[in-house]
Fold Transcription termination/antitermination protein NusA.
Amino acid sequence: MDNLNLISNFAEFKELKNIDKSTMIGVLEDVFRHLLIKTYETDENFDIIINADKGDLEIWRNRIIVEDGQVENPNQQISISDARKLDETYEVGEEVADEIKLDSFGRRAVLSLRQNLASRILDLEKANLFEKYSERVGEIITGEVYQVWKKEILVLDDEDNELILPKSEQIPSDFFRKGDTIRAIVSKVEMRNNSPVIILSRTAPEFLERLFEQEVPEIFDGLITIKKIVRIPGERAKVAVESYDERIDPVGACVGMKGSRIYSIVKELRNENIDVVNWTANTQLLIQRALNPAKISSITIDEEKKTASVYLKPSEVSLAIGKGGLNIRLASMLTGYDIDVYRDVEEEDVDLQEFSDEIDQWIIDALKGIGCDTAKSVLEISPDDLVRRTDLEEETIREVISILKSEFE
């Protein structure tokens, strides 16, 4: 069992993923020095030479030459007689370097060294993998589906590292088979049982944001900023964007000519509907834009309670709420306000004759004589004008107005 045999068993270490050459050499030297200390109680007078390119290793022991019979520590001293067996020119006081073969340590020690080395390399790989993917959290990665289970999918990256896509992080309509190419973002990296676990996601808002960065050059270049993204994966999403260049229409740039840019994003997200809206610091205007395509009549906002009461024509209410309540739910998520929708129903007018049991007929006739046939037509005229135009008493006019107003309260 020589040096080369040992290193050849670990030949793959020369090209280990995630481990650079200098780190690999440091680990090898550290493991061998541990063996030297265990065997000789010190490693101070030993030189370890590693050739990572060839995959071989040499251990040399340095000892001082002393007179015959004066060797006190055979690990650090050598007699002149033994030294001259190596080279006849040696003299007392000089240093002798002789190579230590691995078989001199014994089979059990070498097997232990192999196990220690394998363990150290594995730990190093785990640490490097954890660090590598911790730096890539929020990035899109492309991998290959290796195994599909009920609760998760095992994905391999281009270096055959194992990544996990849980069912909870998949779009409801996602369907993958072994061998399929898959795109997702790195959601988080955890250590479980001393091993790194890389979790992917296709449902996170950041995944949609990265897709926009890939498809819209203006976003990638920083000319357009994504202010906020909210989504119900596989169903609908709202993306608020803002342009720093007034010449650029942020919504138009994100959608593209005839939807060319957003099409590939929608396809990747399993036909998830995406609404792109112009961001604004004006809360009322933002709520109005968030509820598109519904047309809003008026909005009342309570800043303390973070609520908004939105009034719309009856025909617009279903558009504001959306299928399954998705539109109003996403609008609330985007704006940060709880939105309540109300029908803005105009009050119907009432014919004056309907008040004949409360108002004398001659008074009704006098009002009709000036063109007021309905209650609202009377209320639209000031009391002074009514007195002047009808020649009725002011007290009578005030009583009529009171009766008519009560009808609409």
Observations:
- The mean pLDDT is 88.
- DSSP finds 15 helices and 15 strands in the chain.
- The chain has four domains: 3-131, 136-201, 280-346, 352-408.
- The domain at 352-408 is CATH 1.10.150 (DNA polymerase; domain 1).
